[in-house]
Amino acid sequence: MEMTGDVTSPREVELQLQEPPQPPAATKYACKKCRCVLFTSEELMPHEPERQQISTRRKLKDMKHHVPGGHVDCSSYFLEETQSWMDEALLAEGKIHCPSVKCQSRLGALQWSGSQCSCGTWVTPSIKITKSRVDPVFSQSNANIVTGVVLPNIAAYAAENTPPAH
């Protein structure tokens, strides 16, 4: 039986699966209420939890109040720079709202003097977006989802391509 060009050999499938993964695309973040895209993961300011002296003070306070584990995850994202959609009036200091005219949901706050993250780290300047107000938006390229790949039936392929026994 002759094979058509549509069928992929098991070796080709194996080689495709062994290819090094592509670096993930930047994750986009959108307003939870209206789905308006606001920023990407490339625009986030990284910070290390419990890295500064003020974190030690918070840890002692948490121990005093019997917080289990003493470690709190970050409840906010911090942006490295103001975004073009941010209201010019709040650039001194103020609340950050969704740029969608119909939505205007409060997303976070801007404080040039800085603010403390829930993990205990002090971030300056503080362009803080509350995680519960935004959702990550995954595309096919950054969700690591393989679509449209039809894996052949290897047993059927082997049976069709095995020479007849004499």
TrEMBL record:
Species whose genome carries this gene: Phytophthora kernoviae
Region feature Disordered, mapped onto this chain: 1-21
Keywords: Hydrolase, Protein phosphatase
Top-tier EC class: hydrolase
Keyword Hydrolase: yes
Family membership noted in the UniProt record: Belongs to the protein-tyrosine phosphatase family. Non-receptor class dual specificity subfamily.
Statement: the UniProt record of this protein carries the keyword Hydrolase: yes
Protein name as it appears in the record: protein-tyrosine-phosphatase
PANTHER family documented for this protein: DUAL SPECIFICITY PROTEIN PHOSPHATASE 12 (PTHR45848:SF4), DUAL SPECIFICITY PROTEIN PHOSPHATASE 12 FAMILY MEMBER (PTHR45848)
A molecular-function term among this protein's GO annotations: protein tyrosine phosphatase activity
EC number per UniProt: 3.1.3.48
